[in-house]
Amino acid sequence: MSYHLILPFFPEELRALLLDPSISDLMVNGTTGVYADRNGVIEHIPLATPYSNDRLQAAIERVARILGQDLTTQNPILNTRLPDGSRGRQFLTLSHRSDMTGPDRTWAVMYRPGDVVQYERGSKAEGIERGSFGVVRSSDAAMNRLTVELPGGSSVEYDPKRVYGVNVYRETSREFATGDRLQFSAIHKDLRISNCDMGTITKMEPDRLTVLMDGKEQRSVSFNPAEFRQFDHGYAVTSHSSQGLTADRVIANIDTESSRSLINNRLAYVAISRASEDAKIYTNDAATLGQRLATDVTKTAALDSTARPEQPITQEASKTRTVAVREYNNPGSRLAAVASEYVSRPERSVIVAPNRRERDELTQLIRADLYAQGKLGRDAQAVPVLIEKETGSKMHVENYQPGDKIQYKTGSPGPDGIPHDSQATVISTTPRENLLSVRFDASREEASYDPARLRTQTRESRVFQEETRELAEGERIRFTRHDKDVGVRSGDLGTVARMAEDHSITVRLDSGKIVEVSPEKAQHIDYGYAVDGLKNVRAERIMATGEGLTHQTFQMVSSKADLTLYTNAPQQDFSSAKKIVFPEFAQPAKQQHDFGIGS
């Protein structure tokens, strides 16, 4: 009997009894223990921890559900046979709730009973261990409270806005057998497994799977599928999860009647470019396929471009320089070309793209290609970082959310209790009184104030939200804050040379300097592939693309920098004037000394 299927639902004491080959029947009584038929003799086995009827019923209901049966008041008896392993075995795997965004995970109403929550960071305040899992039992939308059952049977109720670094999954029953293709959907550092890695099952044991990993390095990994459950069949994958993969053959199934958000030029580029030898497309309508794959989701589409002659760009000081301008009939090929050019020489290079969605797409494309080329390490780590919020007026508390980080340059230590050069976390807002309540990270003391009253302090503050970045050795990063202790300036670019187990990072700056970044300091880094502007960014090679580029975008560019413009239609007056003024790069003197929080 394949008892591994039901073991995760029962406490450790019952698991041992279920796996005991001498026991043929078990009767569980939560108050007095367990009665077991061992070799034809009934014996009483007390349980160290009482096992309530509610917990037992919940476990059996989940077993029935994954076996395709219902256990209800009308059908109260579960009479079924578990898989015997002769063909395949059922596993309860975890699938990402792909319909939930990062902001969605801060609202209790978005969770469903039965969701499995993984706590990457944990929470000391709520008693949640780092890396642990819990099962959602209920949610209170009005109070934004979530009730989760933790390992061991204990429960915790909390506001999801105050617990960070969570992943949300649904349990799914999957049958696997030796020879099945498998794809992982999470990182496992000890096994050197990265998200989306693929392999083939070579051996199945009662509590262990052995998988031969794809890739040039012929290696196998072995794991307990009851403990590491983030995997699925690897025969057909989405375009998104295929990024970073390379295969000899790619078979793309494209239904032209699907949504434009699924069938577009990004699919055409990502899916087909995964093949090293052969790619085939199967479609329901070959006549309209080309048009559908040219669909522009970020004003993106086809693949033809016109390389304009390099134009002279005259500097006001009578110096001249040339800049390459590449025009594309559709932005889809523009983004692909920018990503490809960047990957050819990422060192001391940066892309400026005012549109955030295009920056995210470029970063995704570049990281996938670098990974496929072996330039990014396989042992990636999830690192929490602080990203400055694009918000409305900081004078109004409606623009703040619990969990936001505020960095104060100028404080109000006396009456309001705000230290100079400090950082605090928003804990609540009172819109009626325009009152903001914060807790200071260093002292853990709390303060409440009206941001409109402290105009100077509010105006000079910066507001951040916490996000997660998956970083690996070889990653290009950008520092987002001056830090005299580390020896970096805001905008410095570098390459991750080493990732330590405690999340500290060794970075080789483009200047050649090696710096050590602690986990706390690592909050002030971000991907260094594409930026929204060039202020404080120092690079030898700049690729500019997208709408919103103006003369002001290039005010801080050195005349020695290699600049290429990637454009669709002529960029404002760039083509009509055929010249752009590029003054010498000149940093304001104050930036040379502007180190520390609030810069």
What does the model show?
With 599 residues, the chain is mainly beta. It is 13% helix and 33% strand. The chain has a six-stranded antiparallel sheet with strand order 4-9-5-6-7-8, with no helix packed on it. A six-stranded mixed sheet has the order 17-18-33-32-19-31. Strands 20-25-21-22-23-24 form a six-stranded antiparallel sheet. The protein is built from eight helices and 33 strands. Residues 83-87, 297-320 and 571-599 have low confidence and may be disordered.
Indicate the topology.
Blueprint: H1 12-18, E1 23-29, E2 33-38, E3 41-45, H2 53-66, E4 89-96, E5 116-119, E6 133-140, E7 145-149, E8 155-158, E9 166-176, E10 181-184, E11 198-205, E12 208-213, E13 220-223, E14 231-233, E15 247-254, H3 265-272, E16 275-283, H4 286-293, E17 305-314, E18 320-328, H5 331-344, E19 349-352, H6 356-372, E20 381-388, E21 405-408, E22 422-430, E23 435-440, E24 446-449, H7 455-459, E25 462-471, E26 476-479, E27 493-499, E28 505-509, E29 514-517, E30 525-527, E31 530-531, E32 541-545, E33 562-567, H8 574-577
Parallel strand pairs: 15-16, 18-33, 19-31, 19-32, 32-33
Antiparallel strand pairs: 1-2, 2-3, 4-9, 5-6, 5-9, 6-7, 7-8, 10-11, 10-14, 11-12, 12-13, 17-18, 20-25, 21-22, 21-25, 22-23, 23-24, 26-27, 26-30, 27-28, 28-29
Helix pairs in contact: 5-6
Quick take:
By secondary structure, the chain is mostly beta strands.
